[in-house]
Amino acid sequence: MTPPPGFLPGPTPLAAVLISVAVRALPTASRNRYHDEFRAELCCLRPGRQLADATNVLLGSLALRRALQEDDVTALKADRRLGCRIGRHHYRVINGDNTENRSDRHLECVHCGKIKEIDMYEPSDGSTLGGGVGLV
Amino acid sequence: MVATAPRMTLSTQAVLRALIDDPEREKYGLEMSAATGLASGTLHPILARLEKIGWVESSWEDIDASKEGRPRRRYYRITSDGLPIARAALAEAHAQRVRIIGGFRPLRETS
Q1: What is the per-residue pLDDT across B6-59, written as a single tens digit (0 to 9) for each?
Q2: Which is nearest to B16 in space by CA: B84, B87, B98?
Q3: For residues B15 and B69, what is the distance between their CA atoms, to the nearest angstrom?
Q4: B48: which chain A residues are within 8 Å (Cβ-Cβ)?
Q5: Would the CB atoms of A57 and B40 count as touching at under 8 Å?
Q6: Are residues A63 and B42, on separate chains, in Cβ contact within 8 Å?
Q7: A45 in contact with B at a CB cutoff of 8 Å?
Q8: pTM for this model (two decimals)
Q9: For chain A, how many helices (H) and strands (E)?
Q10: How much of chain B is helix, strand and coil, in % rounded to 5?
Q11: How far away is chain A from the Cα of B11, in angstroms, using its nearest Cα?
Q12: What pLDDT was estimated at residue A87?
């Protein structure tokens, strides 16, 4: 029996369900694209392979979701060196736009871009003396 | 400025190598899976990351699906901007691996 004109082969019902579930985990904007992409790939496979492949897509759907959602900062985070991961950053001093204001500076890690404020000694005006006891 | 680059895991390197192998040729998911030995669940997140940073681009196959008798596929290829960066990243990853392996010298035999 020949298929009717316009008929496109699709994955087996079980594989189709797995793909639909996998795609639901993805951001809304990407669902249609990946749904069509996964279906197109599955329909070239034997039913047994389809099921295995669809299961694998389902297992990888959260990783795909993370990849689609992560912004550049997260990508940088993933690329951090071991030193940065354990909190041993390689800071350098970055001056602010105002060159006359020396307090307008901060530290920035050359590897991961982490920003840290410079701890500067500020003379007290006496208002904080007494530790909250209330000097008159 | 810190350059945005993916983690150069062995899987990412395999995907990049498969794309760089013949940069002019577009490949779809199953072809990439066959070339890299990676399953779809591993392959697509890597492709999504590479696409996001502009090293890889993808497009729908331009066919008449009903005429071909199959749905159109999504094809991937390395971008012209991504090609030199990816080559450099692969070379760097390879050099790093060589350095690490070189660091493990065999122990001297004690007499």
Answers
A1: 888 999 999 999 999 989 999 999 999 999 999 999 999 999 999 999 999 999
A2: B87
A3: 29
A4: 64, 67-68
A5: yes
A6: yes
A7: yes
A8: 0.68
A9: 6, 3
A10: 55, 10, 35
A11: 14
A12: 80
